Amino acid sequence: MKNLRISLQLILLIGGLMAAFAAATYLQVRSSTETIYQQRYELLRTQVESALSVMKDYNDRAVAGEFSVEEAQKLAYGQVGKMRFEPDGYFFAYDYDVVMVFHPNAKLVGNSSKGKGDTNGFLYRDALVKLGRAGGGFVEFIGPKPGQDPNDYSFPKAAYGKAFEPWNLVVVTGLYTDDLKAEIRSSIIKTVGMSAGIFVLALIAAYFVIRNITKPLKAIHDALEAVADENVDIAIPHTDLSNEIGMMATATKSLQDKVRERHALAARQEEQQRELDGERSQNAEAQLAEARQQAHVVSTIGQSLEQLAHGDLTVRCADLGPKYAALRDNFNDALARLEEAMARVNLKGNDIAVSKEEIRRASGELATRTERQAANLEETSAALDELTVAVRQTADGAREAANRVGTVSDEARQSDEIVTKAINAMSGIEQSSAEITKIIGVIDEIAFQTNLLALNAGVEAARAGESGKGFAVVAQEVRELAQRSAAAAKEIKDQIARSSAQVEQGVQLVGQTGEALKRISDQIASANDIVSKISHSAQEQDTTLRSISSAVNQLDTATQQNAAMAEETTASAEVLANDTGDLLELIRSFKTSQAGAGREQYRLAS
């Protein structure tokens, strides 16, 4: 689920909500249908109860001796046979042998209907008598309808019958239910139409909501890809928004700024590298000039030494320049004393021969190690520079992550407070539902008392005879209203009971959500501490690496200079070793002049 695209997750969520809405609509239609039929059946039952109460009144009066049972039955049958209720209800009765006892149509009185059924063969009259004797019951059958084709027996009708035991008869009334189907069909069409309209509006709203979420996310995704490709010129969209998308856009812009800074840093490093290369080039030129001058010195001295190699101790060194004037003077003085010291040098020649080889080998190894160390230090310096840049970027990213985690922690705490308020509000709803249930109970009791009062009023009106007929009709209407109020109060009470159960379940779910949010908040706080420590450590590493990088750069410069000097020393040692070898060979062949030779015999070596 978490790997699905956000747009698909939103579509699935909306689809689930629509399916739940459709299921709720279906259940509502089904409940409405059952309620309509139940009201019709309850109407039949209450009407039969009213007729039975009239018969009971006459029977009680007959038992009291006011008149005979036959007179009471005649009066009761006449009054009940004239009673009507909407839309087209009337009363009739069967004895226990299914013989018509009374009916508004006097022609049907005395006819036996035992064993006679409707067009489907259902013996509904026998069933009514059986159910009536068992305490009352409903029967559905089909038959013709007044005002319609008398040969059309397809109209559904519902009847209710209940026995009046003192007179051994079952009082029956019924109503056609085809109008209920039309009412139900109209209600279904209306409900489905409204649901379809709401569904279409919800789809349109969902389309715009999903589009307003996925389109900015795609734009930010494209911008992130561009920044990942080192594109710092692209404009980051939606940075002016204050929601999560705006936060992502701001973070992307910050990342772009970091890439831009890295590019600037790379440019500065390249500039510094060029300056360092220029400085090295200048040093190389200076070293080259120095090497040329040294070569001239060595060449001049070499010429003198060449003369000395042939045993000419009268040669003197030519001009070597002001820098090496002291060397020239020292060389000439040495030649002056050379003849004097030649005897003693010849004695030390063997020792010098051994020492010159050690000097040559040591100088060569020193130059090699110095060059290797310089190369290693240069590579180490470059690696430290790259590591410093990486650690600095890590520190910036850790600081940004710490800020983000802190923001998420604040939002989690706010969500926890909102869930607590939601629990309190739903508990208030549950208490209000309990109060409403008590009020509906009072209404139900009032309706019951009103029904009893209307029943008593109907009995009194029946006793009053013709003068009480109007009052009897009013009492009947009051009873119907009271019965409807009782039925409505009962239905509302059931609905509130179901709502209270759902509210209680909602309180539990919201409580669980609050606990989950609290655990998430604690985890986010721990993550915030860890990220803060990482950010602090990364900053300390950045500072330390900068110091190390600076020290290594200075060490690299010194090592480069040492390498150059080692190369010069090695070259000089090599030349000196060669000249020393030659000198030792020459010493053995040197011949000193006689004591009175004089200085005029000396000559310069050019």
Automatic annotation (TrEMBL):
Its predominant location is membrane
- Ranges in a coiled coil: 324-387
Q: Where is the signal peptide?
A: 1-22
HAMP domain: which residues?
A: 211-264, 292-343
Could you tell me where the Basic and acidic residues compositional bias lies?
A: 269-282
The protein's GO terms of the molecular function aspect are: transmembrane signaling receptor activity
| Positions of transmembrane segments | 192-210
* CDD domains, sorted: MCP_signal
Q: Could you tell me where this protein is found in the cell? A: Cell membrane
Residue ranges constituting the Methyl-accepting transducer domain according to the UniProt record: 348-577
What name does the UniProt record give this protein? Methyl-accepting chemotaxis protein
Q: Which organism is it from?
A: Agrobacterium albertimagni AOL15
Organism lineage reads as: Bacteria, Pseudomonadati, Pseudomonadota, Alphaproteobacteria, Hyphomicrobiales
